[in-house]
Amino acid sequence: MSVSKPPSSVGEMLYCIRQELGISQAAAANLIEISIGYLSEIENGKRPTPSQKTILKIATGLALSDKKKTDLLSLATAERITAHLRKTLPPETIDLMIFFQVWAPHIDRQTLNEIRQHLFEATSKPRGGHNANYGAH
User: What count of Cα atoms within 13 Å lies in the side-chain half-sphere of residue 89?
Assistant: First the structure.
């Protein structure tokens, strides 16, 4: 089974949703009741992550399913959180956090436990005199 890469930003997700719906930016902006320029800036990452209120307005305007609305809200939350963490964490860690924020609700418990175990094992190995033994239970 092939799994496509999840969208890495709200803008990318909005673009994908708009493509799935087969509508232009102008049509989408009209449905959402925002300017075309604002939608374009969101899709192109030229605006900060929209607020939860704006995400809900987008979801309502585009008549998104509950799952897509939840995924969009989750991705927006992850973006806002990681914007603060970008100062201290490597990009690969942030990408992984975003991936889990969006996709973890759709991963079965056994798979999540296996991933957790692999992460624990990887971070428990001494590297450069440090032992990052976080979350040992």
Answer: 14
- First-residue to last-residue Cα distance in the chain: 33
10 Å CB burial of residue 135 (0-12, 13-18, 19+) is exposed
Q: How does pLDDT run along the chain (137 residues), one tens digit per residue? A: 445 667 778 999 999 999 999 999 999 999 999 999 999 999 999 999 999 999 999 999 999 999 999 999 988 988 888 787 887 888 888 788 777 777 777 788 898 889 889 888 888 876 554 444 444 44
Any idea what DSSP says for residue 24? -
Residue 42, token pair as written in the block: 């969101």
CATH topology of domain 10-86: 434 Repressor (Amino-terminal Domain) (1.10.260)
Enter the pTM of the model: 0.63
